[in-house]
Amino acid sequence: MRPVRSAVLCRLLPAPFSLALRSLVLVLLCITPRCQAVQAENVTVMEGGTAEISCRLQNYDGSIVVIQNPRRQTLFFNGTRALKDDRFQMVLFTPRLVRIELTNVSVSDEGGYFCQLYTDSTHHQVATLSVLVPPETPTVEVKQEAVEGGEVELTCMSPRSKPAATLRWVRNGREIPGVVSQQDNGKTFSVSSTIRIPVERKDNGAALSCEAFHVALGGQKRIRHYRLDVYFAPTVRIVPPTGILREGDSLSLTCSVTGNPLPRNIQWSKINDTLPERAEISGPTLQISRLSQSYNGTYLCQAQNNYGRAADHYTLLVYDPGAVVETHSAVPYAVIGGVLALLVFTVICVLIVTIWCSVRQKGSYLTHEASGLDEHGEVQEAFLNGNDASQGKKEYLL
After folding, report:
1. pLDDT per residue over 29-86, tens digit each?
2. How far apart are CA 355 and CA 358, in angstroms?
3. What is the three-class DSSP state of 339?
4. SS3 readout for 65-100
5. Are the beta carbons of 384 and 376 closer than 8 angstroms?
6. What is the CA radius of gyration of the chain?
7. 110 neighbors 187 (Cβ within 8 angstroms)
8. What's the helix, strand, coil split of the chain in %, to 5?
9. What is the spatial distance between Cα 127 and Cα 43, in angstroms, rounded to a whole number?
10. Helix (H, G, I), strand (E, B), or coil: what is residue 299?
11. CB 317 within 8 A of CB 324
């Protein structure tokens, strides 16, 4: 009975067998000097990199070694180049190892490379070349303008990766769930993630980011930063001067305007009148020199953009310096007059009370004096009538 040839058994081994197990089987079967086998190693490389494809030989006796690309075109016949592609180079050819090098790898180079050993029977193994395509920094597209009180739709796109990249929206360190779509472009994939968020005026300038993750990036990520551009109607506020304005002073009013887009034209006017001849407008500032009372009135600042308009007003009141001084001078006299009137009233009240008390006291004195005269009359009458024996002796104090 003839021994089973190793090449035949190698073909009979199931595909799922690991490379190490297949090698072990080959070694055990190669019991004669003529037993020969070939092994190949799978390779994974990033696009644009360099791939090394190796074919390991056992008991090589000088037979023909052929390396073919996935399209079964012969790249090398033994050590001789067969295909004119300078990206392929034979870097090693020994009885145990044959190695070629492929530079500037692209996804079109992906596939199985055949290592074939021609003896009395053909031995071959396939080295699978896998190419990873990391994503570029993603791009962000806005479907429509973000207007205050509405919603904005943002789409983050990674047009090319292999395998498909993973996209994530982040705002203030928190993920915003998006609707993900993926398209197969043959060898590569395009991925997009779309979010819809409500926007207000305060969201203008808010920072968002779209992050792309991929196995070829080794834990790193590609990030596209984006700032929200929210459009809203303007607001207007006039910054007034401080203190009292008198004739001859200068007036400077500044119109503070916000809005997106920022209004370019700011309009100054005077309600129911024209601006004074001395009025000068410089951007948002209105200046009037040598004020007079004829300039009194209400001044208006207005601004508008494509999303609305706004206005603010300032009422000018110029004081006459003479009238101001006269008014201030009259104040002390009025106070002094009031004080004097109060003093006179107080004195009059005191006099009235004093007179009333004096009159009352005098009336009481006269009453007591009349009572004394009555007693004195009785004494006098008794003295004139003499001493009456029948009446006892009486003493009277005059």
Report:
1. 343 344 448 889 999 999 999 999 999 988 788 888 999 999 999 999 988 999 888 9
2. 5
3. helix
4. EEEECCCCCEEEECCEECCCCCCEEEEEECCCEEEE
5. no
6. 58
7. yes
8. 25, 45, 35
9. 7
10. strand
11. no
pLDDT of 254-294, one tens digit each? Answer: 999 999 999 988 999 999 999 999 999 998 999 999 999 99
Output the pTM of the full model.
0.63
Tokens of 205: 């300038």
Q: Classify burial at 319, counting beta carbons within 10 Å of its beta carbon; exposed 0-12, middle 13-18, buried 19 or more.
A: middle
Backbone φ and ψ for 35, nearest 5 degrees, come out as -70, 125
**Number of Cβ atoms within 10 Å of the Cβ of 54:** 18
Tokens of 50: 């360099």
- Residues 6+ positions from 247 with CB-CB distance below 8 Å: 291, 292, 293, 318, 319, 320, 321
- CA proximity to 261, closest of 239, 286, 240, 230: 230
Quote the CA–CA distance of 337 and 372 in Å, as a whole number: 54
The residue among 145, 141, 150 whose CA lies nearest residue 261 is 145
At a CB cut-off of 8 Å and minimum separation 6, what does 375 contact? none
Compute the distance between CA of residue 182 and CA of residue 191 in angstroms, rounded to an integer: 5
3-state secondary structure of 136: coil
How far CA 79 is from CA of 82, 101, 235, in Å, comes to: 9, 13, 80
Those residues with Cβ within 8 angstroms of residue 66's Cβ, 6 or more apart along the chain or in another chain: 74, 76, 77, 78, 114, 116, 118
